[in-house]
Fold these 3 entries.
Entry 1:
Amino acid sequence: MLEKAKIVIVDNDPDELYFMEQGFESSGRFEIMGLFAGAEELNAYLLNATELPDLVVTDLNMDGKNGMQVAGELNANPDYATIKVIVLSIASGENDADFGPLLKGKSLFLSKPASLLDYKSFACDLYDRIHGNLSTR
């Protein structure tokens, strides 16, 4: 049986947050531990969490701290060494190489799926990818 990855999703767009929740949930590969509108909510959750997520999926463009700042802070904090970070954006032309110093090997920069219908397959592909490409630190 497939072990579900524990995930937290951060996006300041309520529609995108809903689409991601539905896609990750319907994939059957993730247990959603929290949905947050920004970095401040994520930080408050992590400070009080009794169990850390395996994965934080965050939008690149958010009010306050952006997704790269979230990734950088999580990657720099030894208390969160086990958390993988996926930064998503609708922007085209950007990739991991553009953000190398912040990503530090346990994070990825990916394009968001084009539609709600694509989130389930995106979630399945991401699960496979994180259990391969990002499983070593």
Entry 2:
Amino acid sequence: MRFLALVALLLFSSGIQVRKELIITQQKILVSGYTSVGKFNCDFSRVGMADTLRFNSAEVRKGLEFKIPVKNFSCGNFLLTSDFRSTLKAEDFPYANVRVGNFREKSGKVFCHLSLDLVGQRLEFPDLMLERGPKGLSGKLILNFDLLNLSPPSKFGGLVKVENQLDLEILLGA
């Protein structure tokens, strides 16, 4: 009888434990911004990779690194895509490098250290909060052109201007 109780306890307690690792099979970056004529979205997606994230792990890992070709971002139409690539100086800086590591859980929330190399600038976000969802982990950042030493583009003699703020969303999909 004690043996059955022990087996039942082990079976039910394993279902209660929070998962301490996540297998990543997709990465997606979505950049959104506003212009004087509306909103734009540009994205990059890569599927078919496989890596394992471990939370609160004592083992030394370099984390996940993504080398993203700027020319692979798509904004829905040729003109927006061309302007986006030009703004990010794709000819001079053909890749954006994203590194995420030090995944840890605190009070039911997931945090990581994110490093972003873009247009020759390195930005560090040591405590980026990630949300768990049915599709994996996602995190959001707000970047300004000033932070990247860029000027917001404008077209048609200033009639169409891009606002200084860009919203960046990162999805690590399972």
Entry 3:
Amino acid sequence: MSAPIDHAAFRAVWSAEPADNITLLVEYAKSNNHDLLALQEAVDKTALHDVIDHAHRLAGAAHIMGALTVVDCCRALETAARDNAGDAVVERAAALRDEIRRVHAYIESLQTA
């Protein structure tokens, strides 16, 4: 399985030293936790407009950081919410959480490397 961060995309944005990149990725992971909690709250309340907003915010940050599969998951979630597809929203939110966990685990592995 490929790395969940596209390092070429990430470096194209930041062009920083490797240690600085890791610091930025760690901060990105921390900020995701707040957004994920807010997203789950919106999913639980079936607040689809809020789901769209949180998914959009997560997608923007993921794009900057090179987490392109997270971006794809966010877009799928936004589409499901716009289509008012309740079951699909729950499924897409779960897929997004799983992918973000994979990104976080990858970032943790970079810290110990």
